[in-house]
Design a protein that fits this description.
With 389 residues, the chain is α+β, with helices and mostly antiparallel strands. The chain folds into 2 domains: 72 residues, no CATH class; 208 residues, MetI-like (MetI-like fold, Orthogonal Bundle). The protein has 15 helices and 5 strands. A 3-stranded antiparallel β-sheet has the order 1-2-3, with no helix packed on it. Strand 4 and strand 5 form a beta hairpin. Helix 3 packs across helix 5, helix 10 runs antiparallel to helix 11 and helix 12 runs antiparallel to helix 15. It starts with 28 loop residues before the first helix and ends in a 5-residue tail after the last helix.
Length: 389
C-alpha cells in the first residue's frame, strides 16, 4: 500500500517593516459621521429620503396647528350666522377689478327668488366688491374657552358676507365650521389611540410573555370582540350614552368606545412578536438578573418591534377619525352644538340638499386628505424606524 504524500507546511510570511499607522485605510468625514451617528439621527436621515412622507408630515403638522388656533384662523365665530344668506354658494377670491389691481377681494351676492322652486338664487354682483382684511378685528371669541379676543387672520367689513366655502341652512360660514371641527376630529384619534395602545400592549404583552392559559383567555376574548360587526357594535355602545350628557362627556365617551374596540389587532400583533422575542438570550439574561416581567416587556421586548407599533399607530388614528365621522354622520355620535367633520356631514344626508347645495359635502375633503396623509406618513416612519433594513 502506498502512503499518502505528506503535506509540507506552508511558508508563513512576516512583515518585518515598522508599523505605519498612516498606511491604514482612513475613513472619510462623511463615512465616520455615518458610522458614529446615533440611532435617532440615522432614523431622521432615512425618513428625509421619503419625500412623500415628509410632505405628509408637514401637512399633518399644519392641520394640528390649525386645530390649535382655530379661533384665530376662522373668519367668523363658530355660531355666527346671517339669516339673509342661507345656503349661499362659495365665493371666489379676486385681485383685479375692471383691469385694476385692488388686492384680494370677493364680489357681493346678488339674490333673487325663483318663483317656480321658491329657492334663493345667488349670483355675483360685479359692481360691488368686498375687500378682505388680514390680521384684523372681527367676531369676539374666547381662545380655548379662556382668553377673550377678537383678532382674526382674515375678515371682511362688518355686515358684509364672505363665505369662501359657502354657508349652511342657518347662514353660518362653512369654512369657519370646518376649521373648528378639525379640533374634535383630529384630537379624537390621538386620545383614542392612547387607550388602544395601553390595552393592546398590556393585554397582548401578557399573552405573549406568559403564554399558556393567559394566552388562551386573551385569544378567545379577542376572537369574540372581532366577531362582532363593527357598525352595529358602534351603534349599541353609542346608544348606551345618556342623551342628557354634555358635549364634552359625549366626546370622551366616543373616544373611549373607539379605544375599546380598536385594541384587538394591536394586541395580537404584540402577542405574536413577544412569543418570538421572549426566547432570545438577552431576555433570559434579564430574567436571571431579577428583572420583573413589566420591565422585561417595557424595556427589552417592546422596543424590539417599535417600527410595527409606529405603523399601527398611524393606521389606527385615521381609523378612529373615520369611526367618529361615521357615528356623527349617522346622528349617533357627537351632536350639535359640538362641531366635528362628521357633524357637518350630517347635514349632507339628504340627497336633495346635496344636489342643490353641493358645497355641504366639502367637510369630507379634509377627512380624505388627513387619512391619506397619515397612511403615507406611517410608511415613512415605519421604514425609518429600521434604518439598517
Amino acid at each position: 500500500m502506498s502512503k499518502a504524500p505528506t503535506k509540507l507546511p506552508e511558508d508563513h510570511f512576516v512583515n518585518e517593516a515598522p508599523f505605519d499607522p498612516k498606511a491604514i485605510e482612513q475613513l472619510t468625514p462623511e463615512q465616520e459621521a455615518v458610522y458614529l451617528a446615533p440611532q435617532t439621527k440615522l432614523m431622521w436621515w432615512k425618513f428625509k429620503k421619503h419625500r412623500l412622507a415628509v410632505f405628509c408630515g408637514i401637512f399633518l403638522l399644519l392641520m394640528y396647528v390649525m386645530a390649535a388656533f382655530a379661533e384665530f384662523l376662522a373668519p367668523y365665530n363658530l355660531e355666527a350666522k346671517n339669516s339673509k344668506y342661507i345656503y349661499a354658494p362659495p365665493q371666489s377670491i379676486h385681485v383685479f377689478h375692471e383691469g385694476e389691481f385692488v388686492g384680494p377681494f370677493v364680489y357681493d351676492y346678488k339674490k333673487e327668488l325663483d318663483l317656480k322652486t321658491f329657492q334663493r338664487v345667488y349670483a355675483e354682483d360685479t359692481s360691488k366688491i368686498i375687500p378682505l382684511r388680514f390680521f384684523c378685528s372681527g367676531d369676539e371669541y374666547h381662545f380655548w374657552g379662556m382668553i377673550p379676543s377678537d383678532n382674526h387672520l382674515m375678515c371682511a367689513d362688518i355686515n358684509k358676507p364672505v363665505y369662501l366655502l359657502g354657508s349652511d341652512r342657518l347662514g353660518r360660514d362653512l369654512l369657519s365650521r370646518i376649521i373648528y371641527g378639525a379640533r374634535i376630529s383630529l384630537t379624537i384619534g390621538l386620545i383614542g389611540i392612547m387607550i388602544s395602545f395601553v390595552l393592546g400592549i398590556v393585554i397582548g404583552g401578557l399573552a405573549g410573555y406568559y403564554g399558556g392559559w393567559v394566552d388562551l383567555v386573551v385569544q378567545r376574548l379577542i376572537e369574540v370582540i372581532q366577531s362582532l360587526p363593527t357598525l352595529p357594535l358602534w351603534l349599541v355602545l353609542a346608544a348606551i350614552m345618556p342623551a342628557n350628557w354634555s358635549p364634552i362627556l359625549i366626546y370622551f365617551g366616543i373616544t373611549v368606545i373607539l379605544g375599546l374596540i380598536d385594541w384587538t389587532g394591536l394586541a395580537r400583533a404584540v402577542r405574536s412578536k413577544l412569543l418570538a422575542l421572549r426566547e432570545e438570550d438577552y431576555v433570559l439574561a434579564a430574567r436571571l438578573m431579577g428583572a420583573s416581567p413589566a420591565r422585561i416587556i417595557g424595556l427589552h421586548l417592546v422596543p424590539g418591534f417599535m417600527s410595527h407599533l409606529i405603523a399601527s399607530a398611524t393606521i389606527t388614528i385615521p381609523t378612529m377619525i373615520l369611526g367618529e365621522t361615521a357615528l356623527s354622520f349617522l346622528g349617533l355620535g357627537l351632536r350639535s352644538p359640538t362641531v366635528s367633520w362628521g357633524v357637518l356631514l350630517n347635514e349632507a344626508q339628504n340627497i336633495n340638499v346635496v344636489a342643490i347645495t353641493p358645497w355641504l359635502i366639502l367637510p369630507v375633503v379634509p377627512v380624505i386628505l388627513v387619512i391619506l396623509a397619515f397612511n403615507f406618513f406611517g410608511d415613512g416612519l415605519r421604514d425609518a424606524a429600521d434604518p439598517y433594513g
